[in-house]
Design goal:
- This protein has 263 residues and is α/β, with parallel strands linked by helices.
- It has a domain of 152 residues: 3-Layer(aba) Sandwich (Glutaredoxin).
- Strands 5-4-3-6-7 form a five-stranded mixed sheet.
- The longest helix is centred in the N-terminal third of the chain and has 26 residues.
- It is elongated and about 130 Å long.
- The relative contact order is 0.14.
- The N terminus is likely disordered.
């Protein structure tokens, strides 16, 4: 190819000034443009189209959302199952087959105006409940040396202390059983006065801050917990029991030492 031949001639001739025809005189008069200049001019007038940006990788949002949704549904199912399984047990007392939580509580006839000791083990110099050896203090381990009927009443102000009157009337018929009462949310002096007025002769314990009530999941006044010797619950009965019911449960507690009572 001759050197004078323009290798970029196919890009077209330049536009003549003022719309005139480009003549030979003008060609001679105007300095010749290089092919590179002509190419740059064409690029300005007709820019080369840019390729579209590459597509962004798609995020597996659908799969991620599906997994999260399934996990959330499973969590709801588990929470619902747990709620159903424990529904109503928050104030049902100690369920049959469960061991009674240990405690050491002052008698209302004592001078120990203290809270109940609920220690399972010795901690920071505080003895475990069943290791307490003080006159005027009763432990759960001592009470459960025999089958136990343990009746909870709240401060005696709403009439449920009459359940302890029924315990008083039938207790002598069952010398092989231990009977005890717990009075909560009252002072030592008021609890002692209540005992004297009613003439209760079985152990009556003070639970002045209701910590024992809470530990034993007591929701109603009165509530009676029945336990086998050794401290395993035979079941809890909420609300009042008649004397005939108390006798029936006391006999069953003696007759079936390892069974839950039909409460």
């Amino acid at each position: 190819m001759p050197e004078s031949e323009d290798r970029f001639a196919d890009l077209g001739p330049g536009r003549p000034p003022d719309g005139g025809m480009e003549g030979e005189a003008d060609e001679e008069r105007r300095p010749a443009r290089s092919a590179a200049e002509r190419f740059a001019e064409l690029d300005e007038r007709e820019p080369e189209p840019q390729p579209p940006p590459p597509p962004r990788p798609s995020r597996p949002a659908g799969r991620y959302t599906w997994v999260v949704g399934i996990a959330f549904v499973l969590a709801l199912i588990v929470a619902g199952a747990n709620a159903l399984r424990h529904a109503g047990q928050g104030d049902m007392g100690i369920l049959a087959g469960k061991r009674l939580p240990p405690f050491a509580a002052p008698l209302v006839t004592s001078t120990h105006n203290n809270d109940v000791n609920l220690q399972r083990t010795r901690t920071r110099g505080v003895p475990s409940a069943c290791d307490v050896r003080l006159s005027g203090v009763v432990t759960s381990c001592g009470l459960t040396s025999r089958p136990l009927v343990l009746t909870f009443v709240a401060n005696g102000g709403n009439g449920c202390d009459s359940q302890l009157d029924r315990v008083q009337r039938i207790r002598r018929e069952f010398p092989s059983l231990n009977f005890a009462g717990v009075i909560s949310k009252t002072s030592l002096a008021d609890a002692a006065s209540l005992r004297r007025r009613h003439g209760w002769t079985f152990p009556v314990l003070l639970d002045r801050d209701a910590s024992l009530f809470n530990t034993y999941a007591i929701g109603d006044c009165p509530t009676t917990v029945f336990a086998h010797a050794g401290g395993v619950s035979a079941g809890t009965r909420r609300s009042e029991l008649s004397e005939s019911q108390l006798r029936r449960y006391a006999r069953a507690l003696l007759r079936f030492p390892h069974r839950a009572l039909p409460l």
